[in-house]
Design goal:
heterotrimer; A mainly beta (about 100); B alpha/beta (about 575); C alpha+beta (about 160); A: about 100 residues; mainly beta; Immunoglobulin-like; three-stranded antiparallel beta sheet; 7 strands; C: about 160 residues; 5 helices
């Protein structure tokens, strides 16, 4: 299996679950020009991110191209226990997608 | 208001405690006939050096004649030069202290009093203070900018300075230019350093939190994400002294981020407050001090917002301040010092600590005159050994100085002008740009300029030069951007450097205006107005974005000098200043 | 606002995007259907006013000091500016949007919180020049904002 584009760290801190995620993605806005050819580099960015815990959505994000290259996302939610899992998936404007599940520590 | 002499003497006695009268503290302190006879006081002696910029041997160093304060900083320390500064601190004209702290009569006084600094001479003073106070009653702190600034520091990747600091017995340090070596080298050097390296304001960035290449480094704390140990506790004179580190907050902005890709900096005064509170709560210290590389204006603002700090020992802005500024904040008062640069001074703060509190203090910024302090033999032989492999290169005579060659000041110094002229001449450009660093030593008229001097002025890990086309608009944008780093009226937006130096370009500068409105009337040397849309050939060095393609700047400057018997400037491209009449920051 | 109301609002939000994205991620539907859900006009809006209308339904939200934005005073790199928005002092927060006032298209992101999710988010954004970062917080139909200026500089020339 290809290596996932998503890295997740989920940890119980002061009773809540803190999730940190890093996604490998160019996040091209569509406004940048290729310096050599002068042609615009086509837009290619993550538009939707969904984070679930026990099948329930805990965070749903809509993004534009101005989220930095290799996006970072962190959030906190209640009601999770050590050993349970969180899943993060993304979908980009060209139909690309990925998903990753990690155990809560 | 008139006060009786009796009242005046009483006030002077209080000044040490309240720090209300900086002039009188200094006047009282300088009385002893021996410059280095520092009366004992209290039970805790904190020694502070900062920004030596790797100057192992004695040098000449001219203090600024222009150091403007804008907004709330107008007319206040450190924005006082020449006579205004002497008057403020009660320093006698034409005295040895007047020479140490001001640019007045620089050439003449330099010839009379000789060179300043030098680690062998500094070592003698430190040893003397340790033996007078008792070793266990002293602590030696280094505010950083120690590993960069000389040829030997560059070629040994800062290791010559780590060795010198170990020999000197530096107990604790923080940093700025230290980070311009590769991160791996920084970690290695800290490993060899026998003291402690501290910084509360450097954290791992988001990427590094997932995969950190120095996860084994002892200073790293996974829980709070700090890359270095934030503070240390030292037992000094029976008191528990907490020292919190504050590295230069804007290192990845002022210097290339590519050298420190995993670390994120910032002033982070909220984190500083948390740290002070936590240290006071858990460590029960008698004294809390901050070893800071913020720059003095940033320290003054931080001291007004963060409570619970007894003293901030500051650096970065190279302000040799004879007395601390006392800053009021909601929790009490904080002393803010700044200890100059280039190895010229040692700050000595004696504290009377009793019952878990600082009761009173005495402070002196002691100038190191190498003729008046014997060289420590062990340190001198270490320095000679370090220099040996590079001696021939460093001592090459390039030319004779036709006038005083210096850098320090808000705008072009004469040595900067030589660098700018060299860029324009050797690289055939119309306009040149050179960074407004505050380090770099001074050469007296008639003195031989050696490669040592050129390295003192140019020695950085990103020395590559460039020659490229820029529009008039681009050039103005650069000038405005750098000018705002210097004259933004909020100190937290000041980066502590001086204005970018220019060659072949004149302009009018209004420091009191807002960004975008400070620079006007740009012309070429011949008076031709700069056209915003026209392209100009610009030469420069020290790009922070990506590496430039050209030769190192020191080769360009050395080539330029070798072509001449005597080097002097034709014209100083310093701007016409508007709105600064009467500002005591102009000499 | 009751938890139930909040939950209903949240479900409305997730139906429009999150759940659909998950379904797409699982290969259940094709991405073209998903694109319709992403609020294109808000993200392509050229002004803060249009962006706010598009994402929060109003451009006249009041400032709220219960919202804190943590971002650097001066960005270390304009292409990677860390921004944290904390609205945990407001109850019943449904969503947090991040806007960079002077970006060519100001809307950067919108985050919809689940019922157990804290009103907090941390991410990294691109900023072309010095500008206010605006956080737009919706809670039970009431919208409020906070702003923090981030300076984007050329850098260099430091002491």
């Amino acid at each position: 299996m290809a290596k996932s584009s998503i890295k997740i760290r989920a940890k119980i801190k002061k009773g809540a679950c803190e999730v940190k995620a890093l996604m490998k993605h160019p996040m091209e806005t569509g406004q940048r020009k290729n310096k050599k050819t002068g042609k615009k580099i086509p837009a290619h960015f993550i538009q939707e991110v969904n984070c679930t815990h026990n099948g329930q959505s805990v965070l749903a994000a809509e993004w534009g191209g101005a989220i930095s290259t290799n996006p970072y996302l962190s959030f906190i939610f209640d009601g999770a226990k050590k050993g349970e899992s969180v899943t993060i998936s993304w979908l980009d404007n060209q139909g690309g997608k990925d998903s990753m599940t990690a155990k809560i520590k | 208001m008139t006060i009786s002499r009796r009242e005046f003497i009483r006030l002077m006695g209080m000044a040490g405690a309240a720090g209300m009268l900086p002039a009188s503290t200094f006047a009282a302190a300088k009385r002893p006939s021996d410059l280095y006879e520092i009366p004992k006081f209290g039970n805790v002696c904190l020694m502070h050096m900062t920004d030596c910029h790797a100057q192992l041997n004695p040098v000449y160093f001219r203090e600024p004649s222009v150091n403007l304060g804008v907004g709330n900083a107008y007319g206040k320390a450190p924005h006082l030069v020449g006579n205004a500064m002497l008057k403020h601190f009660g320093i006698e004209n034409n005295s040895i202290e007047a020479h140490a702290f001001s640019y007045l009569n620089f050439d003449e006084a330099s010839r009379a009093y000789g060179k300043v600094g030098g680690f062998a001479h500094l070592a003698s003073l430190v040893k003397r203070i340790r033996s007078e106070r008792g070793n266990e009653n002293t602590l030696l702190m280094d505010g950083g900018d120690t590993w960069q600034g000389s040829g030997t520091a560059y070629w040994t990747r800062g290791k010559d300075m780590v060795g010198a600091c170990n020999l000197l017995g530096v107990d604790v340090m923080t940093g700025h230019w230290e980070f311009t070596y590769k991160d791996k080298e920084v970690i290695e050097n800290i490993g060899e350093f026998k003291g402690e390296f501290i910084a509360q304001n450097i954290h791992l960035n988001e990427d590094a939190q997932f995969d950190y290449k120095f996860s084994e480094f002892s200073g790293y704390n996974e829980d709070d994400n700090r890359a270095f140990k934030p503070y240390t506790i030292k037992n000094v004179g029976g008191a528990r002294v907490a020292v919190i580190g504050q590295a230069f907050p804007y290192t990845p902005i002022a210097n290339p981020q590519r050298f420190m890709p995993d670390w994120t900096f910032g002033i982070k005064d909220d984190a500083m407050q948390e740290m002070v509170d936590q240290v006071r709560e858990t460590e029960k210290p008698d004294v809390v001090v901050v070893l800071s590389h913020n720059g003095m204006d940033v320290d003054l603002k931080m001291a007004s917002r963060v409570t619970g700090i007894d003293a901030i020992f500051g650096g970065h802005t190279h302000d040799g301040m004879p007395a601390p500024t006392v800053v009021k904040n909601p929790g009490g008062k904080t002393l803010v010092t700044n200890a100059g640069s280039n190895g010229k001074f040692l700050g000595v703060m004696d504290l009377d600590v009793r019952g878990g509190k600082v009761r009173d203090f005495r402070y002196r910024l002691v100038p190191i005159f190498s003729n008046q302090l014997p060289a420590d033999h062990e340190m001198q032989s270490y320095i000679d050994n370090v220099r040996k492999p590079y001696k021939d290169v460093l001592e090459e005579k390039l030319a004779v100085a036709g006038e005083t060659l210096y850098r320090r000041g808000n705008f072009n110094g004469t040595f900067d002008q030589i660098i700018c002229d060299a860029l324009n001449t050797v690289n055939d450009s119309q306009i040149s740009l050179s960074p407004g660093f505050r380090w770099g030593t001074t050469v007296l008229p008639g003195q031989n300029i050696t490669m040592d001097h050129v390295m003192d002025q140019t020695c950085i890990t990103y020395p590559e030069t460039y020659r490229r086309e820029m529009s008039g608009e681009d050039i103005k944008l650069i000038l405005e951007d750098v000018c705002d780093n210097l004259f933004n009226d909020d100190p937290y937006f000041q980066q502590g450097g001086d204005m970018v130096r220019v060659g072949g370009l004149d302009y009018v500068c209004r420091p009191n205006n807002k960004m975008g409105k400070r620079i006007s009337n740009m012309t070429l040397d011949d008076g031709t107005p700069i056209d915003a849309s026209k392209k100009y050939v610009v030469g420069g060095w020290a790009t922070v974005g990506s590496k430039s393609p050209g030769r190192p700047i020191w080769d360009v400057v050395a080539d330029y000098m070798r072509l001449q018997e005597t080097v002097s400037i034709k014209k100083l491209n310093t701007p016409k200043l508007v709105g600064v009449d009467g500002n005591p920051g102009v000499g | 606002m009751s938890t139930d109301t909040k939950r209903r609002l949240f479900l409305k939000g997730t139906l429009a995007s999150g759940v659909v994205a998950l379904a797409a991620g699982a290969g259940l539907i094709n991405p073209r259907q998903v694109l319709a859900a992403w609020p294109k006009s808000a993200f392509e809006a050229k002004s803060v006013s249009e962006a706010m209308k598009g994402i929060a339904g109003t451009d006249t939200a009041a400032g709220n000091d219960k919202i804190t934005i943590k971002a650097p005073d001066i960005a270390e790199n304009g292409a990677v500016v860390p921004v944290k928005v904390d609205a945990t002092k407001i109850s019943g927060v449904d969503s947090i949007a991040i806007i960079a006032e002077k970006n060519p298209t100001p809307l950067i992101a919108n985050f919809k919180m689940g019922k157990s999710t804290h009103a907090f988010v941390s991410t990294r954004i691109k900023m072309g020049k010095t500008s206010n970062v605006i956080a737009v917080v919706s809670a039970g139909g009431s919208v409020s904002t906070a702003r923090k200026e981030v300076k984007v500089t050329i850098g260099g020339c430091g002491g």
